[in-house]
User: Fold these one by one.
Assistant:
Number 1:
Amino acid sequence: MGELISGAAAGAENVRRLRAYLDDLAAGGLALPVRQGRVNVSAVALACGFDRQVLYKNPTAKEMLAEAEAKLGLDRGDGEDAAEDEKPAVRTPDQRDRRIHKLEQENAALRAEAAGLRERLRRIRHVEEHMVETGRWVAPLPQSLGETGK
């Protein structure tokens, strides 16, 4: 399972998987899945077992998908209505990509906060050790040395 294959071999395998998926749809008389009036690339990629970027970057896969869209059409049976067909095709950023970006930003902020808290804990432990060893209180550090005054 962990064997490496060349980019060309991986591309050919992805095209083979896509062809098998599209053939299955055609054999079953099914259309391509739709999302916001266009082919749901994520659903196609998931069904084929590869990343959706393959359908954007692999020219053969991209062409096969376009041909299949013309030949098979789009599945409009899952709540899609005719009013959506009349909307102009406006490319909007994918909601999942926006959510991922937002979560990455929150994660970075939390990591920075955790690092700051670890540093503060290290300083507090150092002060506690000094107090235990000497039996004396330690005066608070001036704010110019990094203490927040809290």
Number 2:
Amino acid sequence: MTPSSPIKTLQTANGCFHYQDEGTGQALLLIHGSLCDLRYWRWQLPALAEHCRVIVPSLPHYWPQENVQTGFSVYQHARDMHHLLDALNIESAHVLGHSRGGAIAMQMALEQESKVRSLILADPGIRTPQPESHANFKHEALQAIQEGKIDEGLAVFIDAVSGENTWKRMVRWFRQMVRDNANTLVLQQKEPAFYFDEASFSALTLPVTLLGGSDSPAPFPQIISRLERILPQAQSHFISPASHGMNLALPHEFNQLIINHMTTV
């Protein structure tokens, strides 16, 4: 699946970035999650670009990039996104992160809050120090991928974060995108975890909208509930009927919540 908007390439001292850039006005940065890339936002870019300037990158290590030398972690990717905004001469942006991208968005705010105008966190993937009973799926998925059983491993991962049999129902372009990024699970398995830090989170003063799918599996509803208690300017919305891929299942509702957020902060 080829994106409808041209993919731009930016070579900087901090690496090469592939991204899409459409619209004018306030800047909105969209950060994808695990196994995804800039194609994940296919139903957001054209609609939101009618209201603001939308920056849609593929994180370093993800399609179409190869042989990236920088480290793979939430912390490195947060720095990468700041470097991209700097290179585009964007002083501050609204930042939307989905799943693992939500952790990256949060780290961006913790590192340089003045450059993050607001946060929109969609089922953010933020860990707690307690053992996660569901975490075995990551090991099972990675083992299958390393054994060459690519689709089997991807099905395990996607079904765990989005609900049983989600992989079977996925359309062709989504499956291809996930296959293109299968090897990033090897890197993700080794990255330092991004944990809840109540003291740091509660010190953030920027507006935050938390988005969840009505049918998203654990731990995402619990993460949103905890963040709403911790973050001083947070409010939550649940999109129904939808699971973890809420922006694909109900794009009009998802996009409208983003527009409402940006017009009220």
Number 3:
Amino acid sequence: MNQSTETTTNSPATSPASTNKPAGRIAFIQARWHAEIVDACRVSFLETLRRDRPGAFAVDVYDVPGAFEIPLLARRLARAGTYRAVVAAAFVVDGGIYRHDFVAQSVISGLMQAQMEADLPVLSAVLTPHRFHESAEHQAFFLDHFRLKGREVAAACLAVTAEPVPVAVAA
């Protein structure tokens, strides 16, 4: 497992008073199979955080070999008490042996279990296409799709880490 930190730029509006540190940390776990496609998700995720909540979060990026290794690390990071949320990204494709459905289901179940055990948001950008071929057309399509998923998982992450706002219900 490799780790790097990509800290968003702080701004006075989102930084705690008298410090120049982000208000929280997010862990981003990425599988390295089809890294160029998964990286598009991470880049889009980080750009969206910087645009929508500049300086709000530092993001620690963790590399794992494949999607199957994500849930254990997600659970460990969620339990550590360091993070406000954990985000997972992977691209699970059909390698011709019909194993991808098993892997994808196991990963999603593991992420849900980690979330429930740690009582911490664990978000998924783990995707399994119906069909994927190593053609330029499919590469381009899924690069764009993972950029979209990066923006979507960033928006979800910002929503679940925001302070809850009570909703008044008329009696």
Number 4:
Amino acid sequence: MVSRAERGPLADWFWTIDRFFLAMFIFLMGIGFMLSFAASPAVAERIGLEPFHFVKRHAAFMIPSIGVMLGLSFLTPRQVRRTAILILIISVAMMVLVLFVGQEVKGGRRWIWIAGLSIQPSEFMKPAFVVVCAWLFAEHARQPEIPGNLFAIILFGIVAALLVAQPDLGQTILTTAVWGGMFFMAGMPWIWIMLLGIGGAGGLLSAYYVFPHVAGRIDKFMTGEGDTFQIDTAREAIIRGSWFGQGPGEGIVKRIIPDAHTDFIFSVAAEEFGIVFCMALVALFTVLVLRGLSHAYRERNDFNRFAVAGLVLQMGIQSIINIGVNLELLPAKGMTLPLISYGGSSMVAVCVTAGFILALTRHRPEKRAQDRSLFRVPHGMPAE
């Protein structure tokens, strides 16, 4: 048992961490590991691997991911900022490199092989980008003469250009939505709101005409014509699951769903555990986002406020995109369900996000003492 009287790093961490957040992150990862038993064996067998290949790899990825999350949760806000800057520099450099030597999968260059591992640099860019932009917005709010907003706009332009070049329109939309939300919280002028809206609409229209695969997905979504096998089987799995599911291991449609262990794991969960289970899963993500926004609302420090809000928005919007595709509410887009789907880069990167959230939402004694000093009556001065 860790005592409050102790002053070591572990004791300070234990008594200042948001244990609800920590429990939620680990609980969601546990659900993801459980669902990997349901979703991945059929995928492994289809490509000639032993049935529990992806289950074992999922477990192998979970161990370092949890370690990364816990390690980052010990950081101070200043250390979070410095770590994010380092991660952003490395990930952006790798995103440039991936355009030339990256592994091409389904028409996109998003992965690079390092030491026998396939890494997607854009996944690690996302949390670092949020934290660095939060710092730039906060510096501009603290000292308007510092062009923090301008630097944030330039950084966004660089990141968006690299994502489009891969091309990865889904990550581009996610990054744009989170960045726009943070800019709005930082006091975005109305002219920028209008320009961002026009730019976003123009970007989507351009993507439709420039990228054939984007046009194909949107056309299939709007008309229901063409190759809609993924969406059709996902919908069939959800319908077959009904309210309470077919039971663990009893799913049939899941066996033919492409990418059942990654992009369409929500449909597998619906078939085996039912719509009620999926509603509970949606509720967990909702509570996670609302708690983060509540922390941000109470936070006095601009950097902490913008960073926490941006990080939870990133997790929330990514969840919405994944679930929306599974429910046929959005055009098909390969995007994982945070903390749930299989994927090494995705899982480690989401745990970087979780570690940053835990670090920035800690109840720091020095911060409370500083807040109390604002209302302390100086010696010799009469209290009102």
